[in-house]
Design a protein that fits this description.
Elements: H1 8-19, E1 24-27, H2 29-36, E2 43-47, H3 51-57, E3 61-65, E4 70-75, E5 78-84, E6 86-88, E7 100-102, H4 106-111, E8 121-122, E9 128-129, H5 134-140, E10 142-143, H6 149-155, H7 158-170, E11 173-174, H8 176-185, H9 194-205, H10 213-218, H11 232-237, H12 245-256, H13 261-264, H14 269-280, H15 286-296, H16 298-312, H17 316-326, H18 339-344, H19 351-366, H20 373-382
Parallel strand pairs: 2-5, 10-11
Antiparallel strand pairs: 1-2, 1-8, 3-4, 4-5, 6-7, 8-9
Helix pairs in contact: 6-8, 7-9, 9-12, 12-14, 12-16, 14-16, 15-16, 15-17, 15-19, 16-17
């Protein structure tokens, strides 16, 4: 156990349940992360109190999942999900149990959980209940299902993507029988909502080992979205992209060469637009990057450079940064002529004005000394019928 201190606001919840005569334990990911010394974002508590009893004990509660025995309890500035000990019934949709049975035994509750490292509980005094060897698996760096792996994954197919995601985040290996079950049942992930698949995928790509996502592709977990498998070297380069979710998921689609991947996985529209720009914008030389910056600006071109670096290798983004640092560039903001100037000179208003401005930007990036109103107007007039 690390020296991590449970916040007083969370200890208060545990203490109030115990004072009321109930068992109460921290459970799941928060216990795992305490043992590993990782930061904790979510607090989950399991208890033998029913949801009605939980709401009687605490003044500030939200009945977030009464069907499954879950109540959100507010304590100072902290919220915790408090759930009654339970076992799960059949999983009709390979995601959620159709029914649950509330029990009074902690071990029965732990037995329904996905992986051994997530099947540990800790009371308010720091005593850990670990009946499935979670601490040993953490020491070994192993992700292993609780009980029969095929059964766990047949219940909830999302657990397979979670296994890959934990592998990416923690740098753990997936235990042999657990991985064999993933290989056999991976295509069942096709039945999971796109939103949940997107959430797990983004977490993998934001991790220290984005290339772990390849295992999910190899085992057919994306078969409902695409039939392509990304290149391992290119996926590894996603790690070089700054930590922005939109860029990460766009990079995966771009590496796949599948623009339909993004709408199918319900990615945001910004990612779809970036994909189209990366596919059409020439940014493979310093000259091309200068032209692109002139028209689109550093923000958009920087994103495109990172995407193209991920797919093809190279250092376009660094080249763009050098151009920016040098100050030796011209954008539409410092072009010494505007669309209104061109119209005032006698060229008819319309789409050609934008085309002329773009051509002038290209020109002055090659010949900076021509960036003056007189010269640019002469050039604009010569382009009237372009």
């Amino acid at each position: 156990m690390s020296n991590f201190k449970v916040p007083d606001s969370v200890l208060i919840i545990l203490k109030q349940l115990e004072t009321a005569g109930f068992q109460a334990y921290l459970v799941g990911g928060c216990v795992r992360d305490m043992i590993m010394g990782r930061s904790i974002h979510d607090w989950d508590i399991t208890t033998d109190a029913s949801s009605d009893e939980i709401m009687t004990v605490f003044r500030s509660t939200i009945p977030t999942g009464i069907k499954y025995g879950t109540v959100t309890v507010m304590s100072r500035s902290t919220k915790a999900e408090v759930t009654t000990f339970r076992t799960d019934g059949t999983y009709g949709d390979m995601r959620h149990p159709e029914n649950v049975r509330f029990v009074k035994n902690l071990e029965e509750d732990l037995a329904r959980r996905d992986f051994t490292m997530n099947a540990m509980a800790m009371d308010m005094r720091g005593n850990v209940t670990d009946v499935f060897g979670g601490r040993d698996d953490i020491k070994k760096g192993l992700i292993r299902c609780v009980g029969n792996a095929e059964k766990r994954f047949s219940e909830d197919a999302l657990r397979m993507l979670r296994a890959v995601r934990f592998s990416a985040q923690l740098g753990f290996e997936i235990e042999q029988k657990t991985e064999a079950a993933m290989e056999k049942l991976g295509r069942n992930v096709a039945g999971i909502s796109a939103e949940r698949v997107l959430e797990e995928t983004v977490k993998m790509l934001m991790s220290p080992k984005p290339e772990a996502v390849l295992k999910a592709f190899e085992y057919g977990m994306y078969s409902g979205i695409t039939d392509k498998i990304p290149d391992i070297a290119a996926v590894g380069r996603i790690g070089r992209i700054k930590k922005e979710k939109c860029l990460k998921i766009c990079a995966l689609a771009y590496i796949l060469g599948d623009p339909e991947f993004l709408p199918k996985i319900k990615a945001e529209s910004k990612a779809v637009k970036l994909y189209k720009l990366a596919d059409s914008m020439a940014c493979d030389s310093e000259k091309e990057i200068r032209y692109a910056v002139a028209v689109y600006g550093f923000g958009t071109v920087g994103a495109v450079c990172m995407l193209r670096d991920a797919k093809f290798g190279g250092y376009r983004f660094l080249t763009m940064k050098k151009i920016k640092k040098s100050g030796n560039y011209i954008t539409k903001n410092n072009l010494q002529i505007s669309g209104e100037d061109i119209i005032a000179a006698g060229i008819e208003k319309g789409p050609q004005i934008g085309a002329i401005l773009t051509a002038l930007l290209r020109h002055v990036n090659d010949v900076p000394e021509d960036n003056n109103e007189e010269t640019l107007l002469k050039l604009a007039m010569s382009m009237e019928n372009m």
